[in-house]
Design a protein that fits this description.
3 domains; Rossmann fold; 11 helices; 434 Repressor (Amino-terminal Domain); 5-stranded parallel β-sheet; 8 strands; DNA-binding; alpha/beta
Length: 278
Amino acid sequence: MKRVTLRDIAKKAGVSIATVSWAINNNKNVRIPLETRNRIQKIAQELGYKKNALASELVSGETKFIGFITDDVATTPFAGQIIQGAQDEAWKSGKILLIVNTDGKDTVEQAAFNMMEEYRVQGIIYSTWYHHPLSVPDYLLTVPSILVNCFDKKDICPSVVPDEFQGGYDATKLLINAGHKKIAFFNTTSPSPAKTDRLKGYRTALEESKIEFNNSLVFNVTPNQEGGYNFADSLIKSGATAVFCHNDRVAMGLYDALNKRISKSQKICRLLGSIIKK
């Protein structure tokens, strides 16, 4: 189907294209008889005319776009909540997110910003997949910007970051309230606020519950499945009755390793049982 244009409306209404534009956009600075304005708007509706939002925004200098640039958050477990939250808030204000996942490539990041600049985004959300300090890219200083899951070393841009201390505290407290006193913590090897502050939260929760801190129950593992998997034997030898992990991937690696050992133990028990019967 052919897209209806201002020219089509003007032809049917018997007026100029400029008059149609003023009437359609409800321009208050131009005097158009109310009867003419209503007639043009009625004809536009009958013909199924749709406004060219981008053209209108370019004329006014305002758009409904908000940029969302991320290095790898779109592939991480908590990404859905970050993007969903940003999108929900954007929709509440009648805005639309332009999301670009750069895979950590500077060239892609710069191209993404150039594109967003062309679309005159009202602002940019810049997010990273793990919580850490960074030097804000120069281009972010040219538009209203906010950082998510990272923070500015020079404290120029505002940030939204997790409370790592509270996370470590709450996880430990939950296990203590469940009756555990020998609690292991699979921390990360990556220097970050999560590494230091979660450990502080862990130690504070133990101290409040009069449980002595045991450094041998803290394991620094790589923040991936292999990290959790490779330290399963160390966890078993420690005698811990509970453990909390740096992230879901570490936890899944540990779960897989423990599950295999349990399955192996069950097979041995079944074998010993059959031997005893014989």
